[in-house]
Structure formats: C-alpha cells, structure tokens
Amino acid sequence: MDSEPTNLLTFRQGPQAFQPVLITESNNQLDSESETLRYTGSRLQQPEAAEAKPVDDAGGMDIEMNSEERDLRENILAKAPLRLYDCEFEVLKDQQTYLQETGHTIPPYLVVSQVWGEIRHQMILPTVKWPVAISDLAKWDMILACCKGDKMAKWVWMDAICINQSNSPEADEEKVVEIPKMNHYYRGATACLVVPNDYLNFPSAHAQLVDLACNIMDADVSVQDNTLRIWESIAVLDAVIGDEWFWRVWTYQEFLLPCKHILPNGQELRVDLLRRLLDWYHKILRNGSLKKPEGGTDYDFIHPDKELVISAPRNWQTRNLRFQMKEELEQNGHVNLISLIWQTSHKQSTYPVDRLLGLYGLLSDKDKVPINPSEVSDHSSGTTVLESMWARTIAKAITSGRVWPLLHDSPEPNAAEGKHWMPHITAPTLWDERFPGAALAGLYPETIPHRNQVGMKITNNGLHIVVRFVGCVMGTSMNIGDGGGEMNKIIACTWYLTANGCNTDPIIQQLQHGLATSDMVAPEEIQGSQEALSAALHASSIHDCFELMGEMAFARKLTYGHETTGWNKRVLCFQIEGHRIPFAVLAWIHCSSPPKMGDCWIVDVTSEPAQTVRRWIVVNKVGPKTFRKIGTVRAWQPVSAIINQSSVSIILD
Question: With bands split at pLDDT 50, 70 and 90, how would you rate the model's confidence at 330?
C-alpha cells in the first residue's frame, strides 16, 4: 500500500459541535427579485380539426361514422406513416394513396435503418420530390433488391425517402410533426432492415459470431481446447461491434424500437448475443481462461495479464449493447431520459441537437418538450440549440416535482451562475480533457421515481427547493480513482475509520454490494466473500486487514462491482445532529469540486418518507442560503430513521 490511512483523510481542525444551517421562520420561504424562469415551451398551434367531410375514393365511402369508428380511424391515421415507398412499382406514395389501396389499414412494411455516412451522392428517385442524400448508390440498389427478393416487402419506410429532406420551412414543419411519431413507425413495422456501414462484409462476420456463441460459448465446452478459434475471433467481434451502425444516436432508437432486426442476407441480427459475447470475453480474459495462443494475432487492445484486460477506446464497452433498455421499453412503453443520455453519451451525431432529437421516439410524453422548427433545421456545430432544448426539458421535469435531474452525476464545472445544479447534456462522457482520467457520469436509475411535491422554482440565481439536511461532512478522503490500487485506498480509509469509532456500516454494505455484483465473484461465493470482507475491515491492524484482502483478491474483485468501480469517489465522514458517532459513506464527488470542511452537507432533496429515499446529494455552502451540488451518495436507511425530519428552503445555484 502506497499511503498510510491518515494521509488519505482530512478532518476539520479540532472537535466542533454540530452547527445546523441557521434558518429562521421568517426566511423559510426564499424571496428573490430575479426573473423567474418558467417552463412554457412554444408548441406549434395545430388548426382545430375540421368536421368530417365526404371522401370520394374509388369505391366511395360512407361518411356517417359513429364515435367508435371515428376513434378507430383516427388511431390508424395517428400511427400510419405519412408516406411509404412501394418497392414493387418503385414509387413513393402518400398516406391517403396507400391507405386507399390497402382498404384503409396500415399494410405490412419494413423500416430501413442505415448510417447516412459521408454523403457523396444526391440520388434522384421518381416521385420523390427532394434529392435523397446517400453515401453509396449501390446501397440503395441493395436495399431495393433485398425488399424485392422473395417478395420480402412491398412497402418500406426509410427516413431519407419518406420524410421531406428539402431545405425549406415546409420540410422543417414536417419534421417537427414526424420526429415524435417515429416510435410508432418503428414499432409498427414487421421488421427493421439493418444496413451496416460495411454492409458487404458485416453479414458473414455476424454469422461467424453466431456460430461461435452457439457452439462454444453456450455449449459449455473448454475454452482452453478452443483457444485459437476464440482468440482469432476477437478481430471478427471487434469489426462487427465497431461498425458505425452501433455508434450513431439516431440508430440507437432503431435498435430498441423494432420487434425484429434482419440483415440484407435475411439472417436475424442478434444484438443480445453480441452483448453476451462481449461479457464472455471480458470474463474469460479476467479469470485467465483465455490467453494468447502460440501463433495468435497480436492485439494492441487486449492485455490478458493486466487488470484492464481490454483497453479498446469504445468498441468493447458492454454498455453500448445494454439490453436492459429494450426490456424497459417493452415493459413501460418508454425509457427514462437520464438513462438514455448516459447510454448514448459516447455515440455520434452529425449535429449536436440530434443528441435529443434522435431519442424522441424512446421518451414518454412527460419527458418531451415541443420541438421548434428552428431546432430541427439547426445544422451548426455549436451546442446552443441543444442546451436550450435540454434546459426546457429539465425545467419541465423539475417544475412537475420530479427530482431525477439532481440525483445523477453529470456536472458542468464551468456552468453559468445559477445553473450548476442542472445536469449537463454534454457532460456524461467517459473522459473529459479538462480533467484527464475523470469519468463524468454517475447513473442511478433507482432514483427515477423520487419526487419533491413541496414546490420548486427556477430563477436566475438557481433552483429554489425545500430539503432535509442529513448531516454535516466532518472529514473526507483524497479523490479516489479507478482500479485495484485505488480500491486499496478505500479499504484503508474504511479500516481506519472503523478502528477509530466511526460507524462504517454504510460503506461496508456498499462494498459488499460491489462483491455481489462483480463478475469476478461466483454466485455461490458471494456470502462467504462478504463475510470475509467485513472481517478484514474489522481486523486488529491495517497489516492484518490487507493480508486478508490480498488472500481474497478483494481489490481486483471490487474493481468490477456496481457502484464501487469508476472515478471520482471519496470516503466522507459526516455527523448527524444530536448524534455523537459519525458515519462513513462512499460518495461520488467530482474531482473539480472538493468538499469544504464544515461547509459541506449531505442533503435529501425529496419530500418522500425519509426511509424510502435511495440517494442524497452532497453540497458545499457558497452563500447565506445558497448551496452548490458537488456529488451524490447512496442513502442508508438506518440513518434516514434518525435524521431531523424538518424541512428547510434553500437555493441550489
């Protein structure tokens, strides 16, 4: 171990009594002369629906419809694509035309998901009134041949063809209406035809991986007996998951929404299988089952003998193929916004505003704000339009009582005054150049349902909110990073605080949870490992503690555990009003915002029963009634039961 525990921790000078924030009855409600920012949005005014008029189609139509028939028809029209491409006759048909041909029912159709790529051609198609931007003319020929082959699909929906792509106000107005409807189009399709960037080689490589998964990974055969094939397949998997189709914002909703994905050769795209292959390779490299065979290919991103066994910059991040999102979508009909922002933070888009527009098909109505025509037409490289749309989105959530914007970690250290509380749309990236090695995102989906019903107000000087103070931070560790060596610092701090009379149960339970979620701990070993960890942290000496830790390889195992891995961690020691024994927790604190001893607090921002709260925020006091969020920490129910339940009005700047 490089550092003594006492060198890792900082405490206030000398014992001091607990000093609660000074609030009097007269200033419980904060007054501000600053202009209040209110969520209004600028919804496009749709003309009132005209009364039903006769429709004179080929067969004639009875215009007398009862309310049930009218509702059914309106439901069909709401989900029917504005246009569909007729592959048989190679013409684009509007909604009225194709519905007349199909007896006013939505016909079976394919949606096409493709990466636009570098635009080299403006393709002119008969009946399409705008040039179709495409990277490769042969790609369209392949799509058309695929749909015509074995009569796979007569009707196709493809954004570049079926949504007006011209540079005109009319096209912008159409996109405003069509973008929120795309979830209906993808869900209603019989299948999604995926056209990868490398559409010529992708299908055969994918087939090789399916065979590898079925005959080796899932067949419970020896890794050592198949080392060469498994090792050489690393290049195949890297090429497949590195295809740009997996790395674009717009194609992410096209991955989640359809019921089935097919490749141009007709085989089903098995994203779930690719995800399991990634997890499998991580596991067999970590546990030493897979090592480079004699004569095997040298990969500069594979390191079987190191803690970080795979150092590929993006392709091998298992979150990229996180299938829980699809399960959440199928269960709830939508995906929560903050999870989507985190999930897609490393994905690419041609224009910054697409970071939100490309996700609209996955969101619930309560998370959406009206789209302005100027936003869909924004083709600048700046983030002004994106940040404006994001601010309206956050304001809508907060003013409706939802506090998830406060309970996740995506800070912007250089935010304008009064905006530090707001999660930053471009912040949840893996790395940040201003703070090298600092992962900026901390995601906690369990906090999504939390509410504050007392009433919140956004003004120029910050968020006015009623909170409960949990405790005052009396001590903090140095900033702790990722990896086994950094994990040893957490262990050292926890042992020291335990030995000196602090209640370290919160942090010990969090570390035990890390073991339970680590893929380095077999299910049958979890309970024994958790008990051994607790014994080590209560050892009589730091030497005995680390001897036990080394025998069980806890540092390495915890490196891959949930909420114990990643950067920007600190051990905090805090005191609750009226209680002498302090508590120790493991908090997410960004490295740019260290705690201010004596002016740092742990705060509950919900109005829910304290014992149901899953996460608190950590704030530094920066003014008489003003605080700045610097991180979050997992709530611990035994503490929630003894904290002061009185509420206080503050400003989060």
Answer: confident
As a whole number of angstroms, the distance between CA 136 and CA 134 comes to 6
Q: How far apart, in whole angstroms, are the C-alpha atoms of residue 234 and residue 60?
A: 62
Which tokens in the block code for residue 469? Answer: 């103070």
- Please tell me whether residue 416 adopts helix, strand or coil conformation: coil
C-beta neighbour count of 63 within 10 angstroms: 10
Indicate the helix (H) or strand (E) that contains 397: helix 384-399
> What's the CA gap between 610 and 71, in Å, rounded?
45
Strands (DSSP E) along 576-643, which ranges? Answer: 583-589, 600-604, 615-621, 626-634
Please write the tens of the pLDDT for every residue from 137-187: 889 999 999 998 877 899 999 999 999 999 899 999 999 999 989 999 999
Give the integer Cα–Cα distance in Å for 158 and 105. 19
Type of residue numbered 332:
N
d(CA 99, CA 94): 9
User: Which of helix, strand or coil describes residue 289?
Assistant: coil
Per-residue three-class SS string for 542-588: HHHHHHHHHHHCHHHHHHCCCCCCCCCEEEEEEECCCCCCCEEEEEE
Can you point out the beta strands (E) in 87-134?
91-94, 109-114, 121-123, 132-134
Helical ranges in 457-541 per DSSP H: 484-499, 505-517, 526-537
Reduce the DSSP state of residue 60 to 3 states and report it: coil
- What is the pLDDT confidence band of residue 433, given thresholds at 50, 70 and 90? very low
Give the residue among 576, 573, 623 at the shortest CA–CA distance from 17. Answer: 576
Alpha helices (H) along 400-504: 484-499
SS3 405: helix
Burial level of 17, CB count in 10 A (0-12/13-18/19+)?
A: exposed
Structure tokens at 499: 């030995």
Backbone angles phi, psi at 457, to 5 degrees: -135, 135
Q: Which two tokens stand for residue 642?
A: 């003894």
Is-contact 471 454, C-beta < 8 A?
Answer: no
Q: Find the helix or strand (DSSP H, E) in which 375 lies.
A: helix 373-376
- In whole angstroms, give the CA distance from residue 625 to residue 627: 7
User: Whole-prediction pTM value?
Assistant: 0.82
∠ CA(280), CA(197), CA(440), 5° rounding? 55
Three-class SS of residue 211? Answer: helix
Closest alpha carbon to 532 in 519, 545, 514:
545
562-579: pLDDT as tens digits: 778 778 899 999 999 888
User: What tokens were used for 107?
Assistant: 């016909």
Give me 27's structure tokens: 């200033």
Q: Which residue has the tokens 């636009």?
A: 116
